[in-house]
Amino acid sequence: VLDIDMKTLGIDVLLYSAHKWLCGGYGISVMHIRTGLLEKYGIPNIGGNSLDAQTSQLKNTAAVLEVGHLDFQSIIPLAAQLECILDIGIPAINARVESLTDYLYQKGDEQNITILNKFDWQHRSGIIRLQIDAYQKIALLQSNINCIVKDDSITVGISYYNSTEDIDLLFEILAT
Fold first, then answer.
1. Angle, nearest 10°, between helix axes 90-110 and 72-88?
2. Which of 17, 15, 28, 29 is nearest to 157 (CA)?
3. How far apart are CA 124 and CA 117, in angstroms?
4. Most exposed: 6, 72, 75, 98, by fewest CB within 10 Å?
5. Range list of H helices, the chain
């Protein structure tokens, strides 16, 4: 989780998928547009959600760019998840992911498993690639571990809802 101040960083448009880490529905994303940008460049297309229901005028928010339908089946869980994230707090989430990532690094060192993207914390995320052999690949494919398995590596994503028990299970499977 990044605490991003769009104004301080000079970001005009920020887009991110809501599907994975935010636990939103599949196929939706979130977009923030700097105030005044729509007025400066105009609106390329309009759709059913582009108009204010009260005034029938074009909205002056990023919603004006919503040319499709609102996917409430995905938006409602996303709203609940965003509320949960804000309740927990971004600093607490960052600390949790950092702690779990440190734990995963420690477990990798203990089992002599090479971490392919081992960086200092300021240059890393909770997405970690581990080098594996053919036997470990087979064991992972037969397990219920949710990770990306490639020829000689796996990619795991650590999030605030993971636990040390999840990491222990991963390394138990890798040890077989």
1. 80
2. 17
3. 8
4. 72
5. 6-9, 37-41, 72-88, 90-110, 134-142, 164-175
Span 49-107, pLDDT tens digits: 788 888 888 887 777 777 777 778 888 888 888 898 889 998 999 899 999 999 999 99
**Other Cβ atoms closer than 10 A to 72:** 10
Q: Return the ∠ at Cα 70 (arms to 31 and 26), rounded to 5°.
A: 70
- Give long-range contacts, CB 8 A cutoff, 24+ apart: 134-139: 135/176, 136/173, 136/174, 139/173, 139/174, 139/176
Tokens linked to 19:
């599907």
Q: Is 162 helix (H, G, I), strand (E, B) or coil?
A: coil
pLDDT above 90 (res 167): yes
Mean local confidence (pLDDT), 101-120 = 92
User: Is 81:23 a contact under the CB 8 Å cutoff?
Assistant: yes
